[in-house]
Specification:
Structural class: alpha/beta
CATH topology: TIM Barrel
Radius of gyration: 19 Å
Order of helices and strands: HHHHEHEEHHEHHHEHEHEHEHHEH
CATH architecture: Alpha-Beta Barrel
Strand order of the largest sheet: 1-4-5-6-7-8-9
Number of strands: 9
Shape: globular
Bound molecules: coproporphyrinogen I
Length: 344
C-alpha cells in the first residue's frame, strides 16, 4: 500500500496532512548532541552507517513524523569528487576551492559514498510501519557555491563573478555535478530511498537569466535524468527563497515544490498546487518561539493549502536552540488538523 506522504508527493490530496521537518535530526535534540560528542566530529557520523542510521531515526522515536530524512550532508558530493572537507565546530564547512573541473575525480565517486548507501539500506530495514525514507542531494548551484568559496557563510561574490567572467569553466563544473548527482540519487533509491529532495538552498543568489541558466537548467537536467531511471519515485524540489516568478520557472517536472516561509501559502495554492504537491512552510523562528502563535500560523498554512496535495514542513531547517517540546506540539497541531470534505 502506498504510504500517505508518498501519495501526497505524488499529487493526491490525503485525508490527513502528512509532515516532516527539514533538519529534524540535529543539534536541537539532546540525543543527537550526545552521539556527536562521542563520535568526535560530523563526518565520523555521516560515514558510519550504524551512527548515521541511529541519528536518522532519532526524531521518529520522539515524534509522529511521517518520514525520515537520511542523515548526511550535501557536501559529501564534492568530498567524493576528491575535495578535502572538514566541518569545524561552530564555524561550518570548509572545502578545497575549485574553479577547474579537471580537478574533480569522477572515477570511484559512488564507491566513496558506499557508507551512505549502507545507511539508507539499514534505515529502510528498520523504518517504522507507514513511514517513508527521504534521500537528498544539494543542487549544483548551491553545492558549487561551497566549492568556489571554500566555505559556508559567504556572500556569493566569488561564484557570481566566476559565473559571469568564466561561464564555460563554471558550466563544466556544473555539468560534472549534474552527472554525479543523478548517479548518486539513483544509488540512494536503489538502496531504499522512497522519495528524494533536491536542496537549492541558495536559489535566491541569482535571478532572471542567470537563475534560468544556473538554477533551472541544472535542476531540470537532474530531474529528467532521474525520472528516466525512476519514473515513479517522487522528486521534491526546494528552491529556497526564490522569487515568485523564478518559482514558476522552477516547474521542471518535480512532483512537489518545497517553499520557504517568504512565499504566501495562498499564492502557492493558486499558482503551484494546481500542478504539483506543495510542501512547507512554517518559519523555523515560530517553531523556536512555540506556543499559540506557532499553532495558529501552522493551522492557517494547513487551511490555505487544504484544497490540494500538501505536505507540511518548515520553510527551512529546525533552529538548534529549538525546544523539542515545541516540535511535539507542532506535530499534534498538524496531525489534528481536520481537512474539509471536497465536493466530488
Ligand atoms: O552537528 C553539527 O555541527 C553539524 C550540523 C549539520 C547537520 C545536522 C550540518 C553541517 N549538516 C547537517 C545535516 C544535514 N545537512 C541534513 C540531514 C538531514 C536533516 O535534514 O535532518 C541535510 C538534509 C543537510 C543539507 C544541507 N547541508 C544543506 C541544504 C539544506 C539547508 O539547510 O539549506 C546545506 C546548505 C548544507 C551545508 C551545511 N552543512 C552543515 C552546515 C552548518 C551547513 C550550512 C553552512 C552555511 O551556512 O553555508
Amino acid at each position: 500500500m502506498e504510504k500517505e506522504i508518498v501519495k501526497a508527493w505524488n499529487g493526491k490530496r490525503t485525508d490527513k496532512v502528512p509532515m516532516w521537518l527539514m533538519r529534524q535530526a540535529g543539534r536541537y535534540l539532546p540525543e543527537y548532541r550526545e552521539v556527536r560528542a562521542k563520535a568526535g566530529g560530523f563526518l565520523n557520523m555521516v560515514y558510519n552507517p550504524a551512527i548515521a542510521k541511529e541519528i536518522t531515526l532519532q526524531p521518529l522515536k520522539r515524534f509522529d513524523l511521517d518520514a525520515a530524512i537520511l542523515f548526511s550532508d550535501i557536501l559529501v558530493v564534492p568530498h567524493a569528487l576528491g575535495l578535502k572537507l572538514a566541518f569545524m565546530e561552530g564555524e561550518g564547512p570548509k572545502l578545497d576551492v575549485v574553479t577547474d573541473a579537471t580537478r574533480l575525480n569522477e572515477n570511484g565517486f559512488l564507491d566513496r559514498l558506499a557508507p551512505v548507501m549502507d545507511t539508507v539500506a539499514a534505515v529502510k530495514a528498520d523504518l517504522p510501519k507507514g513511514k517513508a525514507l527521504i534521500g537528498f542531494v544539494g543542487s549544483p548551484w548551491t553545492v558549487a557555491s561551497y566549492m568556489v568559496h571554500g566555505e559556508g557563510g559567504h556572500d556569493f561574490a566569488l561564484i557570481r563573478n566566476f559565473a559571469k567572467l568564466e561561464p564555460d569553466a563554471f558550466q563544466r563544473i556544473i555539468d560534472v555535478l549534474v552527472r554525479v548527482t543523478i548517479s548518486y540519487l539513483d544509488a540512494q533509491v536503489r538502496a531504499g530511498a522512497e522519495a528524494v529532495q533536491v536542496f537549492e538552498s541558495w536559489a535566491s543568489a541569482v535571478t532572471g537569466d542567470d537563475f534560468k541558466r544556473w538554477v533551472v537548467a541544472p535542476n531540470a537536467a537532474i530531474v529528467a535524468g532521474f525520472k528516466k531511471l525512476h519514473p515513479h519515485v517522487p522528486v521534491i524540489g526546494f528552491p529556497r527563497t526564490a522569487k515568485t516568478d523564478d518559482l514558476l520557472a522552477f516547474d521542471i517536472g518535480c512532483n512537489a515544490i518545497g517553499l520557504s516561509q517568504d512565499v504566501a501559502p495562498e499564492w502557492a495554492a493558486k499558482h503551484l498546487q494546481t500542478r504539483v504537491c506543495v510542501q512547507g512552510n512554517l518559519a523555523p523562528e515560530l517553531l523556536l518561539e512555540g506556543g499559540a502563535k506557532m499553532e495558529e500560523t501552522a493551522k492557517n498554512i494547513c487551511l490555505s493549502l487544504d484544497g490540494g496535495p500538501f505536505v507540511f514542513n518548515l520553510g527551512h531547517g529546525v533552529i538548534k536552540e529549538t525546544d523539542p517540546s515545541h516540535v511535539a506540539a507542532l506535530v499534534e497541531t498538524v496531525h489534528g488538523f481536520k481537512r474539509r470534505a471536497l465536493a466530488a
